[in-house]
Design brief:
Blueprint lengths: L2 H43 L6 H4 L1 E7 L6 E2 L5 E13 L11 H15 L4 H11 L7 E8 H13 L5 E11 L7 H4 L11 H5 L1 H4 L4 E7 L5 E2 L6 E2 L6 E4 L3 H18 L3 E8 L5 E8 L7 H4 L5 H4 L9 H10 L8 E3 L3 E4 L4 E4 L7 E3 H6 L3 H11 L1 H10 L28 H6 L8 H9 L6 E3 L4 E5 L5 E4 L4 E4 L3 H17 L13 E11 L4 E15 L6 E8 L12 H15 L3 H4 L3 H4 L2 E3 L8 H11 L2 E4 L6 E5 L5 E3 L3 E6 L2 H9 L5 E3 L8 H11 L2 E5 L4 E4 L6 E3 L3 E6 L1
Parallel strand pairs: 2-9, 24-27, 29-32
Antiparallel strand pairs: 1-6, 2-3, 3-4, 3-5, 6-7, 6-8, 9-17, 10-11, 10-22, 12-15, 13-14, 16-19, 17-18, 20-21, 21-22, 23-26, 25-27, 28-31, 30-32
Helix pairs in contact: 3-4, 3-5, 9-19, 12-14, 12-18, 23-24
Amino acid sequence: MSVTDNYDREMNGIKGNRLNFLLVYFAITLIFLVFIVRLICLQLFDCYNLHPSHIYKTKTVPIFGNRGLIIDRNGKILADNKYSYKFDIFPVSIYQKSVTIDQTYKTIAKIFSNHTSLSYKHYMQRINKYKEICKNGFQLAVNIDVSSKNQIEKELNEQKIHGVSSSIYKYHRIYPQNGLLAQVIGMVDSLHNGINGIEKSQNKFLCGKDGWKTVIRSGDGGEYTIPEMQCEQPKQGNTVQLTIDSQLQEILRQTLTDRLKTYNAKNAIGIIMSVKTGEIFAMSNISKKYLNSSGRYLHSLANNAIAFTFEPGSIFKPFIALLALEDNLYQPKDKIDCRPRTIEYESFTRSINDSHYHTYLTFTQVITLSSNVGISRIADDVGVTRLYNRLKNLGFGSRTGIELPGEQIGIFRKLENWSEYSLHSIAFGQEISVTPIQLITAFATLANNSELLQPHIIKRIESVDGELIYESKKKVIRKISNERALNTLKSILAEVVENGTARKANIEYVRIGGKTGTAEKANHKTGGYYKDKYVSSFIGFFPVENPEFIILTIFDEPCDDYHLASNCAVPSFRKVVEKMMLFSNYALMICEDNYRINKTIVLPNFIGKKLAYASQFLEKQGIKYNANTNQGIVIEQYPKPNEPIFIDMTVHLIVEDKAIKHESQNIKNNNQRIMPKLVGLSLRKALQLSQNAGVTLKIQGNGIIISQSIKAGTIIKKNQVCKVLAN
């Protein structure tokens, strides 16, 4: 074999080895490149869906923006949000210094069991079940209240435990004042949108801006988030502040509730409004049907202060009287024929009568004694067109514009639809239907120098950051009358309270002007009126010299003698004013004698004690009192025990009088009796005594007996009638 052949074989071997080397080199390089590519895919792009968000199913869910607060004029919360929370645990992040992870889980379970209704065993079972299969997180506890949440977080921090976090689970709209302003505030639906009341009318301001978050649905069926996931935080809604004063609202609500029960009425409605600004201080609706309903259910009911329509009756007469004064048709002392009147219309003959027979009354007396005959004659002189235009300008037949949904317009027909007898009917409050808010708004013009104001219940709206978004201002719609006529009418309305149908509203320390209305309810089936169903109302403003407040009280279908406004609406009005004086910071605005405001005392309980003890205490405090006898045990007292009273008020003490009791029971000779002394007694005690004495009482009013038609000690026959007046 030649040298050349050996060389060629060696070169071929070298080439073969090089080729093998290259093949091995390229194979190793390829494997390395594949490894690098797979690593890049895993680390940067998650091409194989190995990230926890791909291991579990994800979705985007909304985060509702918290609804704004509703507060009263003094900042008391009327509508708020109640939150419940959930806790998620992340096993991959669990850490507690110097303690094993199993011991940490036990500590977590113990903390949660101490502040929730579930046991330590429950939490340990849940942790052990999911800690391996859901290392990136699972739901540990739900529906935790805020106090428990805070305590749990505090103890977790104290133990320096990481890997457990809380978030909002649910939130509910709550009304913390227990139905205080239920129909006015309204309520929200399941999506937290207002469906009535302030919640509806101010929904665009109260609604927060929704956010969103991405959640993982884990193997345990729960949903949780991890920090890497995207989200947008929600924004809380604005705070709406009302003109309502919760103190006055409670006074009005409690008074109407108590009196509705006393009068067995179907409904009671009340409004307290500022004469000068149109601000609503209180607005209450009480219904016998829903007296025992829950506060939340009351939030779903209609607001009768703006939705209840009724024929106003005699409370309407001042509007006609004002027109007559403006046009100089009458002066206060002018005499008017108030004898029963028969009017011949084209279609029929109509008789107009008063509840009491009158001959001639002055113009003032027509209003103070509420004469239908007298006001019909005044209306004749005023005329149809003048009356229609005035009532239209006062807002009847239109919405007032108050910031509440559901306001009704009532019934006020166009002039061309008036009948030949509409002038007289409307003059004493028939053939026209009004709402309480319309009536108080119109009547306020008589007290505030003729300004028809738009009533409002929203005071201001602020963002959660304190930025002012809206602030209400006094809005004068139009001027109605002149100062001369209004001053004359205000004096007449004060006379209604001092000497007329509203005497029970007369309070010695503040001068009040107002008007009563006892209206038969319309029977829409027959076209006539019920003879046993009434809507009784009283509206009053005070102080007359510089009016600040106007209050309307209405009772729908009060029973028996309470159907008269003077026996239901008027005493209720007075009780509201008295409570305003005693319990609210408005006293200085009302009372003429500011010094008197500070002179109050809480009346102790004298019941069961001797009259001598009670008299000694009252005399020492300089408080006047009266009692039905000179000695004995006190069995009742007015005002009630533990109520604050002014020191210049008179306290009435009812004492067990053995002499009178013996007298009424034992002096029975030849069917004759001796009339007991009833003055100073409560109605209950007076009825008890009169029954024992064989006397039949005819009662006017309620409270303490202040007069009796038969003098005490007079010999009377069995079942003889005695008229008593109570106040």
